[in-house]
Design brief:
Elements (H helix, E strand, L loop, with lengths): L9 H20 L6 E2 L18 E7 L5 H9 L1 H6 L3 E7 L2 H9 L5 E4 L1 H10 L5 E10 L1 E5 L14 E4 L5 H12 L14 E4 L2 H10 L4 E5 L2 H6 L4 E5 L10 E8 H6 L1 H20 L1 H16 L5 H9 L1 E3 L5 H13 L15 H9 L11
Parallel strand pairs: 2-3, 2-4, 7-8, 7-9
Antiparallel strand pairs: 1-3, 4-11, 5-11, 5-12, 6-9, 6-10
Helix pairs in contact: 1-7, 2-10, 2-11, 4-5, 6-13, 10-11, 10-14
Length: 369
Amino acid sequence: MRPAPLPLPHLTRLVAAAALAVALSLLTGCGYGKNRPQSAAAAGPPAHGPALSVKTVRIGYFANLTHATALVGLERGFFARELKGTAISPRVFNAGPAAIEALGARSVDIAWTGPSPAVNGYLRSGGDALRIVAGSASGGVRLVVNPDRIHSLAEVKGKRIATPQLGNTQDVAFLHWAAGRGWKIDPATGRGDVSVVRSDNRVTVDAYRSGSVDGAWVPEPTASLLVAQGARVLLDEADLWPGHRFVTTNVIVSRTFLAEHPDVVDAVVRGTVATNTWISAHPDQAEAAANARLKRLTGRALPARVLDQAWQGITFTDDPLAATLRAQARHAVRVGLLKSADLDGIYDLGPLNRALRAAGLPRVTEGFP
């Protein structure tokens, strides 16, 4: 997918590009998606009514558009309305492993995260750490490259490609895709027929701008931020999946918290369903709400053309797309990042199906045999 050229004279294009570069440097320089708690004001509208079984629920998510259910739900107050007098303590993470660690340490109760961190956390704990309770997003992941250095998929071989983190969802996807082309890459070091550079999304734009990477397999908005720097989309990961649907983000909960506070989990999942329904019905307003939340987190909103391009590639869904999670786990095994793909028990879709029934929507299943 190539962005349409801007109908500007040459000098105006240069000025616009310079202004955009300044905006992007401010976005990345201020710590896009820092692993830190937010202020009380950042939690959104205050709750009203009696508290549920806890006074405060701690919610984790990333400053990514693939986590827009959390961004919009907090910004528009969907979670606060369902939680009534239970307050929300939000926390933003850079990557899934940190969120899983926080969940295990009981410093976060519920989190939005990608499938690979959820699978890793589940398997490493022997199935004890967490449960997936709802879907959130599909798609929104692209391979973007420097068009001066890479002209075709075959030319990715021998180049330096960034992924967000060793073993994260996009890292697994890229390694599996490369293996399917017959390329050899050591999964631990990233060395081989392609040099995989594990680079935090916050610094990947600068790495691309400096020429230290030739491209990146990344989620939104990082992919579109790179396109704004002159990169082009070489591959949309959705094109590799049946029906162009694959899980990018799920809602997970500490197994202990789920057992002790099911009313709170039910309320958050109801808020998730309400948010996704509203996003589908009001896409333009949802974009604006997500961008407003990003501005709260980073100090700067995304430029309009970056936001619009990034948003187009994401589908927000309550369905956890369990069959694709299982496939992603198998991919991790094949590339040597996991030893097992036994995910029996990773889902508890009771909260989701109760929320869907209350909203008059069809139930979902795990999709496992």
